[in-house]
Amino acid sequence: MASISSSFILFASSSSFTSYLINISMTLSSKLQLICYIAVTFTGVIAATDLVFIFILVIALLEELHASVMTIPVCILAIYLSHIASFLSSNFTLAYTTHRLIAVFFPIKATTVLKQRTNRILALILLTFVCLFYSLAFSVTTTTTTFRANTANIVNCEEDRVKPLIFPFLVLDTLFTFIIPFSSVSFMNSAIVYKLQTKLTFNNKLSTSSSAILITTPSIKLPGPSSTETTQAAQLNNGYAMVNNNNNITSSESHRLLHNQNRILLCVRPMQRYKRTTSRSVPCLSTQRQTSMYPKSASFHIRSAQCRATASAKTTKMLLAASTVFLVFYFPCHFLLFCFLFSKRQPSWMLDVLNIARLWFFALFCANFLFMLYVVNDFVMKLFVCLAVHSFDVTLKHRNKKNYTNVKIAFI
Predict the structure, then answer these.
(1) Which range among 147-161, 239-253, 327-341 shows the weakest confidence by mean pLDDT?
(2) What are the structural domains, with CATH classification, of the chain?
């Protein structure tokens, strides 16, 4: 019952998380919307495959508790679905690890290459292939029925080792579910960690070098208005001195003409001065508003970009941790199964080790549930903060545009 309740909780939490993030992604920018869609897609798909496998484990547990739930069709269908769930779990882990590798190594081309349509096509191709390939499990599975006194019959399903198709089927199954995903995910995780570490060290070196340059560079004083006034006064004095030196004879008519010209320039009508001041005050007001609003909009635009980068980094860390959990819990059981393919006789101690490794592999789905429950809540909070900053940035830009339009109309 605990497994059933945990599976239903997993399904409910994944579905509610998916619907919540879809509502959020409708109001975000394209880059942040793509990040949200990636998180929704991969966490939802992994939750669905884990739910299928947990449901099969619940059926097997009820059969061990002498509950008459296992019939021959249910047993064959459980083996078929277990193969599908194992394949999809490993290959979807490989898919989102590849997605993060491209996003880390090629961040500019990631939004053009990794689209929502690409993810849907990839998921559809994997689902079609796995349903067709593992239909071979029906032909290599045999069922045996044993009778128990005063209870229902026991139905056992297992793969028949005598059939000629069983060995290539198991080899391909091991190749698709263990060798290719495990080796690829291990290599990609190492590459992502190396790239992030290199980027972090480069940013630290760049920040230290820039701070050192700022300290050692002397401050350059820009000429203020007082210096320009003194320069202009000096030039005027030099000009007047040259004029006085060249024209020693100055008449009283030149002084009178200059005096009359100054009076004409100063004698302006009051209405003209008022119109001139009002016409000049409008663009000054608009420039003051623009200059006062520009730092706010710029700062919030920077915060919105930082939120997008934070959400992308958070997605990378979350999916990197999920793939690491997959590697830790997935390796022992499938490695022993791979070894059993080439050994005709298995000692008893190896069978005991295999049973323990299977229990460790079954714990992977519980670990996925706890991991998603912990990480997804933190991820939702980060996205909520980014949503608030981004929406405030959009409203501030709209308000600035509206104010600028009103000022421009008033000026006209």
Answers:
(1) 239-253
(2) 2-198+294-411 (1.20.1070.10)
